[in-house]
User: Fold Arginine biosynthesis bifunctional protein ArgJ from Halomonas aestuarii.
Amino acid sequence: MAVGETRFPKMPVIEGLRLGTTMAGIKKPGRRDLVVIEIPEGARVSGAFTRNAFCAAPVTVAREHLAACEARGEGARYLVINTGNANAGTGEVGLRDARATCAELARLAGVEEQSVLPFSTGVIGETLPMDRLLAGLPGAVQALDDGAGAWQAAGEGILTTDTRAKGASVTLALGEETVTLNGIAKGSGMIRPDMATMLAFVATDAAIEQPLLDQLLREAVDRSFNCITVDSDTSTNDACMLIATGHGSPVVEGEALERFREGLLQVMTELAQAVVRDGEGATKFVTLQVDGAHSRREALDVAFTVAHSPLVKTALYASDANWGRILAAVGRAPVEDFDVNRVTIDLGEVRLVENGGRAPGYTEEAGSAVMAREEIEIRISLGRGDQGATVWTSDLSHDYVTINADYRS
Amino acid sequence: MAVGETRFPKMPVIEGLRLGTTMAGIKKPGRRDLVVIEIPEGARVSGAFTRNAFCAAPVTVAREHLAACEARGEGARYLVINTGNANAGTGEVGLRDARATCAELARLAGVEEQSVLPFSTGVIGETLPMDRLLAGLPGAVQALDDGAGAWQAAGEGILTTDTRAKGASVTLALGEETVTLNGIAKGSGMIRPDMATMLAFVATDAAIEQPLLDQLLREAVDRSFNCITVDSDTSTNDACMLIATGHGSPVVEGEALERFREGLLQVMTELAQAVVRDGEGATKFVTLQVDGAHSRREALDVAFTVAHSPLVKTALYASDANWGRILAAVGRAPVEDFDVNRVTIDLGEVRLVENGGRAPGYTEEAGSAVMAREEIEIRISLGRGDQGATVWTSDLSHDYVTINADYRS
Assistant:
């Protein structure tokens, strides 16, 4: 199940950046499961990774290799991504396997091992089937291509329980030149990113220095992937990479920087929202907008408390305007000195709550009409400050339980 | 659905304490939904209430009246509890209705309005059907009785989505005399108590001064009701009352106090566990034991992070020893400077995780054998301190979604 449409766009070429996808039979045969992304020399690469203490072996190795590249003043040259197996909770064996994957691709491509960053997604706790993975690498390298078909194949090659590929692209006019941003992402369950979503790869032809690239990535992740939740579970493998090939216009400051910042946020938000729309079992796409908070942190706390409430999520699934559950979730959010009489809650255009209780004009008919929609907006105003935040989430359906009670079988 | 057996015990008489239950037709006809508890003069009454900022009108009024009684150096004389309607999110009307309920029972019983404490449980956001509630009060008063049948009827009269009444009783030998503790509780969904469960009423014939009674209640609540979760949602109506009639032995200090403390914790823990066993859609009863933490708070944070994980809960439902999900949940717990290489995770007698990954001797067969049980113990050792905590929870099943997607229809 999934909410609404997510069209995979026809991605423009980003010069020098190529993607190769193959079927390595990592979990099951006949499925795209191994992707190699080739990055031109001179590019800058920035990464944001999960804060889960049990981070996966590829996250550890990707961080190490990225740091080594940066120390040499270079960008990474290759990303290698497998699906079907997260290589997480695999201890020393997992680290050795992640490094061996990098080493083999480095050998094939004629680069340093540390210029290759590994990414994995899938079941936690099983070791990688290294024979099949290594045997698949030459095919992925042979498939390297910069066309729209290669982007689409890579978008498909990183999926797990996702029902559809997720891509976003914008082309920005910066003065007389244009800059392109292409991104792909995967994610459907174990989605409560705490740095980034499961996996997202965004590339641009803009020329951006490393410190600015790092800052742009951090800002955009905080407003996009870090503002979504499907099931409150932060993954061991979250990673979001931003690649700037440098073949196009420079982005340094002023209006060009602002435009680029907006474009990047747009691509990342589209990808993040696509993850929620394709959330496991999702039948609703929900925007939670909190304002009137003392701080953005406080607004996020309220939004995530509501977004994680199983009772709110099942009411959304049932299209039941059970606003008492929203009110109860807001009331248990970690907010100091909370005066609930100042809180208003709106469901779409319908006022649900004011003065600590049901809004006088509220009718079940009006509430139910909004809840019946596939895309629902809940606005919560705390009436105590001028900060806000927006979070996107999905509902909790029978299919969510079915998917997660059957995932490994 | 519910896990295991919960036998409602044959409660001994607590002299002077009587319970009356009737069918007032508050939500539907032919169902016990209104309970009055009569407390003898001279008793001491202590209460613990929800910390949800949107607390229900009866919670506000019960707190006020309890404070007024304490200011006069008296205990409350009557508790009145309705099910079918939580009188929460009902603003000024709700407060007026809760006070009117107290006033009418006070008039019938010939006591002060402030000697009556109101409690409600059920749907949030609808006003109480005061005509039916007030019309039901005389019947409840007429039914007042101190026998085991009256305890059982009261246990049934406070239920909502619960599938069975929950009671616990112990009789303690204190020197040459005995002291009795009887308790009833309700709760099945919206269970993540933050002071107490939905509703629990515990009475003893012991004679205990107010400050000690308050302290004993607080301690016992922290180790029982505050250590359970079904669905992470803290209710607007949580309340736990402890009544000491004073007709029996005094409990002041020394061995008698220790015995009483243990007995109280036993009754409250049995009731709290009974709530989890009857958790909405529950098919498993899960004990999460965390040790090796820097503080009890840290141990509780880890335990609740695992207990709230939808992915862990669906794996429990599926009897799938998907230990990677437990590991991922532990890894995202809010623990500073977390060295995961020191963490061990055991499922029953089977070691799942050590040294940051799967334990060497682990086999799927061994894990699956434990997961197939109805009662499951997960032990997590953080290896960084000597503090611990135990939390009880249930799984996330199709029935949970069904119950909560259909509750109001």
